[in-house]
Design goal:
mainly alpha, 5 helices, 69% helix, elongated, binds zinc ion
Length: 126
């Protein structure tokens, strides 16, 4: 068993928080745009109703926007969660094995809740 990664320094925590916050801001903008695109009212008002082909593609676009928006909201929830853990001083600990998560992993995926090892084990277990 490898030793636990070192505790995150204040500088690293600040860096991760900044990354989370900027990603959150970006996602919020995306969700707004996507929800706009997925809006049924907008879609009807754009006058595609007469042409079934156009209506079909508009509805496809709407569904795509809806599923992208859902995905972005899921990510957003994970980011909010990570920010809350930061506030509670519980950030950077693996939810599965309770060991600290490697900084390089957090840097790549600041909202992750699992260390590389547990993640790998879970993926290969499928
Ligand atoms: Zn773990």
């Amino acid at each position: 068993m490898a030793a636990q990664p070192p505790k995150l320094s204040a500088t690293r925590l600040r860096k991760l928080r900044a990354a989370l916050e900027s990603e959150r801001a970006q996602l919020l903008g995306q969700v707004e745009e996507l929800d706009d695109a997925a809006d049924v009212k907008n879609w009807r008002e754009s006058g595609f109703d007469d042409d079934p082909a156009d209506a079909g593609s508009a509805s496809f676009e709407r569904e795509t926007a809806q599923s992208l928006s859902l995905h972005a909201k899921g990510l957003l929830a994970q980011i909010e969660d990570a920010l809350r853990r930061l506030d509670e001083d519980a950030y950077g600990v693996c939810a599965t094995c309770d060991r600290r998560i490697e900084f390089v992993r957090l840097e790549a995926l600041p909202y992750t809740t699992q260390c590389t090892e547990c993640r790998r084990r879970e993926e290969s277990g499928r």
